[in-house]
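Hi P.,

Sorry for the delay on this. The queue was packed all week, but I finally got your sequence through. Input first:
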Amino acid sequence: MAAGGFCKLPNGSVVVALTLPRPGPGAGGTRVRVLVHAVNRARALTRLRNLGLRAVYLRGNAEPPTPDEVTAVLHHPDGLIWRTAPARDGGELWHPIRALLRRGAVA
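Then the structure:
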C-alpha cells in the first residue's frame, strides 16, 4: 500500500504526496515520492492513473507533504514531480514525472 497524504491550500486546491514503488522492471524495491497539484484529491489520483500508475490510492493522511514539497510542486509547470524516497542525503532535486516513466515501462 502506498503511504501518503495531502494538504489543502488556501485557494481550495490540494497537493497530494504519495510514496510508491518505482515503476518498471529492475526497480529493485526502490521507492519514489510523487507530488501532484490538482483541484481536489480525486483529480490528483486520476492524473496519476492516466499516466499508467493504475493501483494508486490515498488512504488517510499519514505522510502529508512538507512545506518544501508543496513549494516544489507549485513552482513546477506540470504540477507533477518525483524523487527517490527517502531523499538521498537531501541533495536530490525533483524531477518531472515524464523522467520517471521514461526510465521503465509502466504496466
